[in-house]
């Protein structure tokens, strides 16, 4: 039996960092270029950092809890806001909680059988992502969208279906405001 040692860490609500992360990664546009609708805008954008994740190293066991800080930077590719790649959990029957601590945006969610849901994220909003819902953070504001996330230790990440088919909805700027539109397959 694994027995974790208690620990704590400090969240920076402004930068979205953990004081002592075990793992940090930055997702650049080039790692998710095909997820944006506007290929010309992607080509013109260079290769900016779109989002960052700060994680603790927790055993991938069902009884443990993963935690991370998710920082989606402000910006757009064409009219489409910066967003995370989004994922299902590899173990589908695992949920997640996001507590937004800074910024403005949406948690965009969908199920494999076609349901979609977008919930607004603002500081102090906690979002419950049920089991079997893919989830993606979308930053529609002018500052970093930062959340503290907690999910089951063994959940894992499954990007596969998202990478090939995308989400059913996109969040784009129309007339200066965020709009949730259908994702049309590119021709
Ligand atoms: Fe997740």
Explain what this protein looks like in three dimensions.
The protein has two helices and 13 strands; from the N terminus they run βαββββββββββαββ. With 187 residues, the protein is mainly β. The chain has one domain: Jelly Rolls (Sandwich), CATH 2.60.120. The strands form four sheets. Strands 1-2-3-11-6-9 form a six-stranded antiparallel β-sheet, with no helix packed on it. Strands 8-7-10 form a three-stranded antiparallel β-sheet, with no helix packed on it. A two-stranded antiparallel sheet has the order 4-5. The longest helix is centred in the first third of the chain and has 6 residues, at 39-44. The chain is globular, with a radius of gyration of 16 Å. Fe (ii) ion binds at residues 87, 89, 96, 135, 151.
Keywords:
187 residues; mainly beta; Jelly Rolls; binds fe (ii) ion
> If you compute it from the alpha carbons, what radius of gyration comes out, rounded to the nearest whole angstrom?
16 Å
- Shape summary: globular
User: What hetero molecules are bound to the protein chains?
Assistant: fe (ii) ion
CATH topology: Jelly Rolls
Q: Provide the CATH architecture.
A: Sandwich
**Helix content, binned percent:** under 10%
Number of domains: 1
Strand content: 35-45%
Going by CATH, the homologous superfamily would be Jelly Rolls
Number of helices: 2
Oligomerization state: single chain
Strands, count: 13
What value does the average pLDDT take? 95
Q: Major beta sheet, specifics? A: 6 strands, antiparallel
CATH top-level class: Mainly Beta
* Unreliable runs: none
């Amino acid at each position: 039996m694994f027995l974790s040692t208690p620990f704590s860490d400090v969240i920076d609500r402004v930068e979205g960092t953990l004081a002592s992360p075990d793992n940090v990664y930055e997702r650049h546009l080039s790692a998710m270029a095909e997820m944006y609708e506007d290929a010309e805008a992607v080509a013109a954008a260079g290769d900016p950092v779109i989002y960052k994740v700060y994680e603790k190293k927790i055993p991938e066991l069902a009884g443990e809890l993963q935690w991370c800080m998710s920082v989606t930077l402000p910006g757009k590719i064409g009219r489409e806001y910066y967003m995370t790649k989004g994922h299902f959990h590899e173990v589908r029957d695992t949920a997640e909680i996001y507590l937004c601590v800074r910024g403005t945006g949406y948690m965009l969610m969908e199920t494999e059988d076609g349901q979609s849901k977008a919930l607004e994220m603002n500081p102090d909003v906690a979002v419950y992502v049920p089991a079997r819902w893919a989830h993606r953070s979308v930053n529609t504001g002018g500052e970093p969208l930062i959340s503290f996330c907690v999910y089951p230790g063994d959940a894992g990440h499954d990007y596969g279906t998202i990478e090939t088919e995308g989400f059913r909805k996109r969040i784009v700027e129309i007339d200066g405001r965020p709009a949730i539109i259908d994702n049309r397959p590119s021709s």
